[in-house]
């Protein structure tokens, strides 16, 4: 049995935790496919996520799912800020479960990177109507500071009252996600979106209790984690996705991530996914597995946590190597899963897993070998 296809348990503050059939995770990937500007998932999201569950993933994450309407990357994104959205997620979760996979939701707020075109780069200004490919509608964006680090219209700096309201939005979204049946909630703190914007000195120039020092810049993230953890059932794991390094001088660096990961673990986060960048011009490495060292650094700092590596992990042997070397406990598969929804099942066969451990849906038994 390969390491990649051994079961694993994600810890939670109470109860036995969450058992995963294997260590493959479908990474959150925006689909930009909501059709009515309402954040409600529909048949496409069922087909997309359901196919990957049937294809053998141990844990299937939704796309970045906004905790408030203003927090969407585009108005073709899914949301969980109202009960109609929560109800629409429930049957999708049920189908994921029926295929033997766990269901995770990535809770997100795009901050200053909200109100953009779904498929092409660039903002949709407040009041403007876009035309790609679903007509879009723009709105004013909020962030920790009036930063222009993204080449977009500067966001409006959030007041302390707005910050408090935002923290409540995260908690209320977590409550709805629980009601929809999700097993894991992941806080999106990567890729230049709101939580990351507070963390990075490149986008947080505040001079109050939410800016300046490391302690102040991490305050919003700590408050979000604490609020979500309080709203999220104690028997369910809480996860977070970090940009482990901005790869920009003066930005958020891996040493900061390692330091804060230990704090997040103490606050109740038990699973960490390590991506990178999203703020400023990219100056980092590239190539297969280029972000694995970021995961390894967090794993060393928080050995009790479940840590996943992500980014250009395409080959089964490559994924296996990440685990057997101890760099991470699991792998998040993104673009390779877009190409092949059965990536885990194919990988299991390629790695020589025993027949019963090859996670094809029963209807596809003829394709086991």
TrEMBL record:
Location of the NADH:flavin oxidoreductase/NADH oxidase N-terminal domain: 3-347
Cofactor list: FMN
Taxonomic source organism: Paeniglutamicibacter psychrophenolicus
Gene3D superfamilies xref list: Aldolase class I (3.20.20.70)
Pfam families: Oxidored_FMN
InterPro entries hit by this protein: Aldolase_TIM, OxRdtase_FMN_N, YqjM-like
PANTHER family assigned: NADPH DEHYDROGENASE C23G7.10C-RELATED (PTHR43303)
Name of the featured protein: 2,4-dienoyl-CoA reductase-like NADH-dependent reductase (Old Yellow Enzyme family)
Keywords, in A-Z order: Flavoprotein, FMN, NADP, Oxidoreductase
Origin superkingdom: Bacteria
